[in-house]
Amino acid sequence: MSRLCLLAVLLAVLLAACNDPASDLGSDLLGGGLEPDVWFTAPNSFDTMPFADITGQAPRVLAGAVDDPLFGSVTATGYIDFDTGFDGTAPALVGAAVRLRRTYVYGDTMSMVTLAVHDILEQWDPTGVKADSALVLGPEIITHTFLSTDSVVLIPMPTAWVSMYEDTLRSSGVDSLFHGLAFAPVDGQSVVGFINSGTVLEVYSADDTTAFNFQRSLTTTTRMTEPMLPEARAAMQDGTGPGVRVTFDLDSLATQPINGAAFLIHADTVAFQDTPMDFVRPMVEELQLVAVRNEDDPALLVGQTRITDEGIFSFSGSEMATFFYRILFGLEEYEYLELRVPVLDNTLNGLLLHDVDSPDAPPELRLILSS
Amino acid sequence: MKQRWFHAGVLVLLLSSAPAAGQGRDDGSLYSRYGLGELRSFASSRAQAMGGGGTALWSLNYANYANPATLSRQFLVRASAGMRFDNITTIDGIGADKTLLAGSFSAVQFGLPVLANRLGLGFAFEPYSRVNYRVTTDGALDFDPTRATTAFRVVTQGSGGLQQLRLGLGLRLASLLSIGASMDYLFGVTQQSRRTSFDSVNLITSNVAHSTRMRGVTTTVGTIVSFSAGEDREISIGGTATLPATLSAERTHTLGESLDLDTLGAVSKGDISLPVRTAAGIAFSSHSRWAFTADMRFEPWTEFHSALDLPGYDRSAMRNRRRISAGVELLPAGSSVTETYLARTAYRLGFYRDVAYISPVPSVDITIQAVTAGVSLPTLFGGTRLDINVQVGRRGRTSGILVRDRFVTLSATLNVGERWFLKRRLG
Q1: Which of A230, A278, B24, B157 could anchor a disulfide with B134, C-beta 3.0 to 4.6 Å?
Q2: Number of C-beta neighbours around residue A47 at 10 A
Q3: Dihedral (C-alpha) A26, A27, A30, A34: value to the nearest 10 degrees?
Q4: Is B133 on the interface with A (CB under 8 A)?
Q5: Domain with A306 in it: what CATH number?
Q6: Which chain A residue's Cα is nearest to B30?
Q7: What are the boundaries of each domain within chain B?
Q8: pTM
Q9: What confidence score (pLDDT) does residue A297 get?
Q10: Do A239 and A285 belong together in one domain?
Q11: What's the pLDDT tens digit per position in A66-103?
Q12: Are A26 and B83 within 8 A, CB to CB?
């Protein structure tokens, strides 16, 4: 009897412990096609749209004017407020100057740029202010001309201006009279950018120099002429627009599970880099894809990617897969997707994209279908 | 008391291995993907070792569900439980092979003589069909041109199957004629799934499955006519018919795994019509030492219809199932209980040939051929035997997309027999 029990136990253990190796043998018998299926589609729409970036409190202000043969002409006015005020007893002032450290140029690098300096006549809060806004300015204080590639621009302020603001600049409290300076384009063929670090208002006494640091900033832009684009191309430009709005028709895939999503956009880098001599046109190298639910809600960041050496922006992260999964299952709704330049530095960088009519490299959405 | 504890312990041990199948840790034949799955039947461990028929096979030691009429001839209360272990080597047309291992339970049966050797009841829980396969496909996907190709793995698998609960009654109308019937409740769930995973954090693993829940009732009727062929010799002829049945089915599509499941779309509902299943057999026994049985089964599955889209189901894919089997048993000791252990051991041998009811390739029949054998080991407890059976066979053929299974099935069944409901008498 004990032998029978032992036999039964051995059989039971054998049954419970068995397992098997993985194998693709028999995949043909199951009908083949077991590999994931990639579904391709072009955007339903891929249109440019007016766009004004948030430039308030950007670390860089832009000023100047450029007439780009591809992207059209744009003007930019920079607004800077300085952290004025002395601690303790301030000496008598004998002069003042604005020292601007240039870190950006767009346009003709051999052209001279002339900017007019104005007082800003209103209190302003730069938070969230867009490039299509404007501040109230006083009359022109002075104009200053410099080469667009100068790394430092020093604009001496007139004696009359120093005298007018001497008490304000020597005070120790928050002033209500000085709201900063604006730098508006007068002449030239380039837009330059001044970074906050090293951009100061210097005031001089008989014995010393005091620097008031860059405190608040804003850049406003005005598009004077529209871009002149080749066929089947779309342009987008940081700061001033246009932007690109994208929609997809995915109704046929409702409740279709997916494993991944990739949205591929091809930049026409050849046409983009075809510029006049000495003309610099910086290119957008990083893009965000955001979903806009409605104009009042904050946009949802769906993906962010850098351009490859081949000129491709590929949004293909897990956030993309999750977003489109939720779209297909009705868990997420959006009005449109929008291409944006990350709000890092304030620029007028541009991008020339193949649009849906491009025979070479139209934008394309790829979805890995689960079944 | 010791005997009861032994029986209970071994039965629990045998049944405890059954969940291994339900947990999907093991795999069976790829052909089980099609239709309702691989058809299973278990009349008794004795019949299993003799080719799997047994339509006309009487036995005092086994409840035989091949024919409910056999329930009429019971003397002891009988319970049996068994398990099986399948080792399947699958070979494709280019010679590649893989070995799959699967464990599952055979059946649980219970027989009760209402009137000894005249009227008997029977209850059985046994599989009707089983889906159990897995195919793993590895590859690389060139999805994003800005990245390297991504390795993927797709696991396509199926599990589950139909079970049946059978309640039968057998009546001996006359010394020659017995009749019987059973009500068979069919139920179960089959699940086909596809899990896709990637070697990339940017891609989501998915598991898409559809589960089909089925249930329905049918009836099996049977009869046996037995003739004496001399002293302690008997010839029996039997036949059964399981009536056509309609299963109501619901199908649910899900996405996800474990508790994180999302239902995709609406639940599909429809009927599945099973055809009549007929069987006939002849058996001969001599002095309780020798027994022969030969059986044939015919099931017109071309009349099968499903409103739901079953894997591989197409009218042209359906076949009329034809199964023949035969077997022989030798019990050297006959009915003697004083012979040696080996003489009281029963030795069985049989074979069968089956044409599957569905084929992945409409023009090709999938045939199953096997040799069966077994020993029935007596125990210290009278009426209780442990049966060890083995089947060695092959299924399908390596032609085109088809594969051939070489299978070895080992099964163990404990058959317990006791006399119940006896009045104690003081002498």
Answers
A1: B157
A2: 15
A3: 170
A4: yes
A5: 2.60.120
A6: A26
A7: 2-418
A8: 0.78
A9: 78
A10: yes
A11: 999 999 999 999 999 998 777 666 678 889 999 999 99
A12: no
Centre a 10 Å sphere on the Cβ of residue B215 and count the other Cβ atoms it contains: 14
Range in A89-103, A107-121, A319-333, B8-22 with the lowest mean pLDDT? B8-22
Last residue of a domain, one of A194, A223, A252: A223
Is it true that the peptide bond before A359 is cis, omega within 30 degrees of 0?
Answer: no
Q: What is the separation of C-alpha A269 from the centre of its chain, rounded to a whole number of angstroms?
A: 18
Q: How confident is the model at residue B417 (pLDDT cuts 50, 70, 90)?
A: confident
Q: Does A108 lie in the same domain as A10?
A: no
Range of the domain at A259: 3-51+229-369
For domain B2-418, the CATH class is mainly beta
d(C-alpha A324, C-alpha A276), whole Å = 42
- Judgement on whether residues A88 and A103 belong to the same structural domain of the protein: yes
Query: Which of A9, A259, A302, A325 would best serve as a mutation to test chain B binding (most B beta carbons within 10 A)?
Result: A259
Residue A364, classed as helix, strand or coil, is strand
Write down the pLDDT at residue A7: 55
Residues A159 and A138: their CA atoms lie apart, in Å, by 17
Among A202, A223, A244, the domain-final residue is A223
| Euclidean distance between CA atoms A329 and A257, whole angstroms | 8
User: Tens digit of pLDDT for each residue in B185-244?
Assistant: 999 999 999 999 999 888 989 888 889 999 999 999 999 999 998 888 999 999 999 999
Tell me if A15 and B98 make a contact (CB, 8 A cut-off).
Answer: no
Q: Are residues A73 and A213 in the same domain?
A: yes
Structure token digits, residue A199: 């951009």
Q: How many domains are contained in chain A? A: 2
Digit-coded pLDDT (tens) for A267-314: 999 999 999 999 999 999 999 999 998 877 788 999 999 999 999 999
Same domain, A75 and A9: no
Query: Is A260 close to B10, i.e. CB distance below 8 A?
Result: no
Do A74 and A212 fall into the same domain? Answer: yes
Q: Is the ipTM of this complex over 0.90?
A: no
β strands within A28-162, DSSP E? 37-41, 45-49, 60-68, 72-82, 93-108, 112-120, 137-147, 152-156
